[in-house]
Amino acid sequence: MGEAIVITSGKGGVGKTTTTANLGTALALLEKKVCLIDTDIGLRNLDVVMGLENRIIYDIVDVIKKRCKLKQALIMDKRFECLYLLPAAQTSDKSELNPEGMKEIIAELKQEYDYILIDCPAGIEQGFKNAVVAADKAIVVTTPEKSSVRDADRIIGLLEKEDVEPPHLIVNRIRNHMVKQGDMLDVDEIVQVLSIELLGIVADDDEVIKASNHGEPVAFQPNTRASISYRNIARRILGESVPLMSLEDQQGVFSKVKKFFGMRT
Amino acid sequence: MITIKGTREGLTLYIDDSCSFSEVLKELDQVLSTKYTDKDEPMITVTIQLGNRYLHKEQEEALREVIRRKNKLVVQSIDSNVITKKQALQWRDDSEIKAITKIVRSGQVVEIVGDLLLIGDVNPGGKIVASGNIFVLGSLRGVAHAGANGNTDAVIAASYMEPSQLRIADYISRSPDYESEGVYMECGLIDKEKSKIIIDRLQVLSQKRPDLNGFERRILNG
């Protein structure tokens, strides 16, 4: 019996879709059977980030409207045989998704997959409710910005009313030099305000944007900072205890020397 | 009233179009029952020529019923010179080229009956569907579905072709996984031998789909 995890944030543009794609990839690297679900009807993106857009024939609305079977709508990833995607519809309306349908789909997927990652749309309306209704766990993504933390707080409040375990936090897009200067919220501060368990931190990394533009999640790359972070988070999801990665910049003479000796900071 | 002709393919019944339908049925019943057929012979196919007579659904069924009752006879087709206005309009709809000027953006769908001439682009995530052929004067970057009702002869042509998917009738092809440039002035069509959609230069259409010329073929083919 698998586990359904919803990835949500409230605010748009903080990296829900990127996080979903990368955690899915990282879990697949650890040989888990994973299914990603995009619930952002009308503004689907997960398929683009995964580079699977050209394979979509049926989508989640087709499944809910019984125009096809669930198996027909699932798309196998081009890199992993254990990673699948259930794409959102691009042309339909948000109202076409309903909580009952979502419950049915996720119950069916749980039979076969170890992890079901649900990419939640931005906002707190029906789309959010549909995404959350069938989830066992929740991951809240935030960036170190006040507005994003505020929205995360709101979402955590809403999640408390739902039938899910207490959510975990991912702080995304941390720029260490700005945190040092005090221009960006520090991770401890955020955790203190939101008072939920921290699952991981991800540094702001150009590679993430580069990779998603190529339709290949960054977690697939061997040793960029972001990919290591995502793989660490995946291991924590599996229950391992992995220490948080240092955010220190790798520049500077000292780290170059370290690199020269093949040491990793 | 009824003339029967035998051909290599079977029987052709010419039914006079100036008498009443009930008389036709009566006479047909008599004529066919007087013809004796040998038990060992294979089934005989029957083609019916109605001339300028129009039959609606029930009449057609009654006619078929009379013939079905006879041994060894199978109705292959019923031909008439006349059709209803509704059918005629449908025909025109199916065979017309509809010109649309629009940029089809992500999430938008343009669906038409007949051939589509799109003057504009189809962006990724956008979709165009036509029961006939599709011609795009612009860039095709989204999904195009030609021959949506099952016409495997339909083609998709575009000034710039970089589609995420091409669909013709019930065939689907998708763009390659490596990042690739699009191509200019090309068309997609079903290769019957390979049984898949191929993309080729526009110039091959004159050989591979000569029927694209002119309007008449559509009237003749229905």
UniProtKB/TrEMBL annotation, chain A:
Belongs to the ParA family. MinD subfamily. Signal peptide: none annotated. The keyword Nucleotide-binding applies. SUPFAM superfamilies: P-loop containing nucleoside triphosphate hydrolases. Residues 3-156 form the AAA domain. Pfam families: AAA_31 (PF13614). ATPase required for the correct placement of the division site. Cell division inhibitors MinC and MinD act in concert to form an inhibitor capable of blocking formation of the polar Z ring septums. Rapidly oscillates between the poles of the cell to destabilize FtsZ filaments that have formed before they mature into polar Z rings. This is Septum site-determining protein MinD.
